[in-house]
Structures are given as C-alpha cells and as structure tokens.
Amino acid sequence: MALPKMTMAELKVQWRQLFEQEPIVDQRRFIERRIAYRLQELEWARTHAAKLEDNRVRIDAFVEKGTIGPRIRNGKPMPGSVMVRHFGGEDHVVAVMPDGRFDYRGQCFTSLSAIAKYITGTPWSGPVFFGLRAAKAKGKGDE
Fold first, then answer.
1. What does pTM read for this prediction?
2. Would you list the domain boundaries of the chain?
3. What is the pLDDT tens value at each position of the chain, 143 positions in all?
4. What helix, strand, coil percent values describe the chain, rounded to 5?
C-alpha cells in the first residue's frame, strides 16, 4: 500500500534490496508492480514453506528418475481425483472434493473407509478397498 506514496528514489532503493541489481527500466508503474509481486512471493514462501519443500522434493525426484509418482495430500488423493471400484456386480465411483471430503452418489463422506463400509456392510480400510494402498499381510498369530 505504501508503494504509490514512495518517491522514485525510494522505489529504486526497495528494488535494489529485493533484486540485488538496478531496475531494468525507469518506469514507475513497472517498478511498483514488480516490487509488489516480489513482496507477495516472499510472503507466500514464508507462510507456505512446507508446500515449497514438497515441491522441491518432487522436482528432485523428477530430475533423478525422470518420472513423478502420484501426488498424495495427507494420505488422501488430490481434490478432483476420481476412484472407481467394481464390487458386488457394479461400479462404485468416488470423487475427492476440494475440501478433502469424498462424494459417493451424491452423499458426502469424510473418509474412504466410511464409504467402503457403506458399500460392503463390513469394516474395510478405505485406501485398501479403493486400491490406494496394498493390504498388509497377516503375520503368524494375526487373526
């Protein structure tokens, strides 16, 4: 908010602090906008450090392997993802909503496990039921 009130000399000082070089043009409107954008970038990076680190890890994996696995958010698939499970002679389609909940046939569920139980009538691991995770093998003594 202070940028329009600053003198051109003050804007250039701010530019040098943010970009460590002289402004590339001598146009006030360009300098103000670029400074404002950079300040927003820095604030976003400060408040979303975990997201930036996740992206760095994914980029490093891509550079190393040439491919990136599916992005998982808090153990749940990304919003907009659609999962289909054929069970009991029919397809069961679940969509991940933007708030992280799940839509199944117009009903809202907070977990995939609740949907799996609704479909089968018995307790299931939702991620296992929908193929997002392999079932753990039972060891000796597990029943």
1. 0.47
2. 1-69, 75-129
3. 889 999 999 999 999 999 999 998 999 999 999 999 999 999 988 888 888 887 888 888 888 888 766 665 556 687 888 899 999 999 999 999 888 899 999 999 999 999 999 999 999 999 899 988 777 766 555 44
4. 45, 15, 40
